[in-house]
Amino acid sequence: MSRPEDILPPDLFYNDTESRKYTTSSRIQKIQSSMTHRALSLLSLTSPSLILDVGCGSGLSGEILSQDEDSGTPGGPHVWIGFDISASMLGVALEKEVEGDLFLADAGQGVPFRPGTFDAAISISAVQWLCNAETSEESPAGRLSRFFNGLYASLRRGGRAVCQFYPKNDLQKKMVSSAAVKAGFGAGLLEDDEGTKNAKTYLVLTVGGGDVDGDITGVVRGMEGVDVMDERRRAKDRKRGEDKKGSKAWIMRKKEQMERKGKVVKTNSKYTGRKRRIAF
Amino acid sequence: MKLLTLNFLTCAIKTCKSSPASFPLHPRDAELEVVEADLNLAFLKNILPRLMWDELRVIASELGLPALPETPPSKADLSIPSPTAPAPATTLQLDPEAIDAPENPPVVESDVEEETPSQTAVDLHRILLETCITEGKLVCGNCGHEYAVKEGVANFLLPGHLV
Lengths: 280, 163
Ligand SMILES: C[S@@+](CC[C@H](N)C(=O)[O-])C[C@H]1O[C@@H](n2cnc3c(N)ncnc32)[C@H](O)[C@@H]1O
Ligand SMILES: [Zn+2]
Hints:
Low-confidence stretches of chain A: 210-219, 221-226, 230-241, 261-274
Number of helices of chain B: 4
Pfam families (chain A): Methyltransf_11 (PF08241), WBS_methylT (PF12589)
Number of strands of chain A: 8
CATH architecture of the largest domain in chain A: 3-Layer(aba) Sandwich
Number of helices of chain A: 9
Distance between the termini of chain B: 23 Å
Domain Methyltransferase type (chain A): 52-162
Strand order of the largest sheet of chain B: 1-4-5-6
Number of domains of chain A: 2
Main location (chain A): cytoplasm
Radius of gyration of chain B: 17 Å
Distance between the termini of chain A: 33 Å
CATH architecture of the domain at 3-71 and 119-162 in chain B: Single Sheet
Largest sheet of chain B: 4 strands, antiparallel
Keywords (chain A): Cytoplasm, Methyltransferase, Nucleus, S-adenosyl-L-methionine, Transferase
Low-confidence stretches of chain B: none
Shape of chain A: globular
Strand order of the largest sheet of chain A: 3-2-1-4-5-7-6-8
Bound molecules: S-adenosylmethionine, zinc ion
Radius of gyration of chain A: 18 Å
InterPro entries (chain A): Bud23-like (IPR039769), Bud23_C (IPR022238), Methyltransf_11 (IPR013216), SAM-dependent_MTases_sf (IPR029063)
Largest sheet of chain A: 8 strands, mixed
Order of helices and strands of chain A: HHHEHEHEEHEHEEHEH
Oligomer: heterodimer
Shape of chain B: elongated
């Protein structure tokens, strides 16, 4: 099966049809919910916190943050702010009347909050999208670094972030985690069901200077399959995705790039026209 | 968008990062709505030290809301210590008529804490978590960039050359 991020940019892939299909699938709801709970358990929050949800989509991950401890959300109910690059996904979140505040924003452009804003951050199934650059002025390395630098600054000292993502291969796993380390994070990779079709990768990030247990080795020690990175390493950053020139995926992407060139705000004309689409 | 969020949001443009004028963003042509939410006392206490109070006052006045006190409440002001103790005298004096809204919101039950939120907590909850900008713009005081807000969602996508 091909990876969606190799076919189209995220805001075009998650159009109105796909966003609705994604959100109403009970299979997807179940997976996203269990991964969000896993991420929450790694955050170890004990009281109501301010949480950022990066690539919040239609709110499948965020709405779990709004639940209380009795419903299985440690420290909850939390207050969350989510952003996503897809207006269609956010439209579905509005229809569901999620409690978090929503933004249309691109994680590859940074995190526009003042330093020390958030107690914690989660990102569920989104960060792999940053490994593709959609225009010639950008590189995946540049987008990843802007994201992690912004995330690092926006977290309070002692804060934590957990990013579950789907790395295409080991190189991509390295590229993502080393970008986080270079931004200043303590980082550890946690793999559930490693080597299986259902493998899940969690990048666990800590911002030092707070509580003693803000150290990553304290979080992941004793967990199986955890690879702690405490040294700042350099990864060879690839410039572009891996589509073969001339392949269908390559042509599709080029075509979208051409269409999008020079547009200040990503317009949605061909994809608009449904219920709660927010037309900017 | 809650006023709480506006108290943490900055201009996204790179060259504004170092300028104090890029925070807070200033609402323009804003439409407000009050959306009821459960009062979460532990959250209010958590967030209180991180608030930029002077900036919150500026925003409240720009939105035509009743003036906030000059100094922020303390954590102790947010709860009534025991059922016999009187409520703290300092309230935010938000006129409930000024923005069309219900009276006291329901309180999140917690078996750990037996504390009762004070009027100050109720007022702070109202302004931070229930008062929302639904339409309008947010304008950077440094570069003048305008971020559109529609249905409460702000558009922070930047054109490539400003990233
Ligand atoms: C698989 S969905 C996950 C949504 C949500 N976190 C969940 O668990 O249901 C991935 C989301 O990442 C968003 N996304 C992809 N690239 C992004 C970027 N650069 N900035 C913000 N969001 C992005 C997509 O629009 C999509 O909504
Ligand atoms: Zn600015």
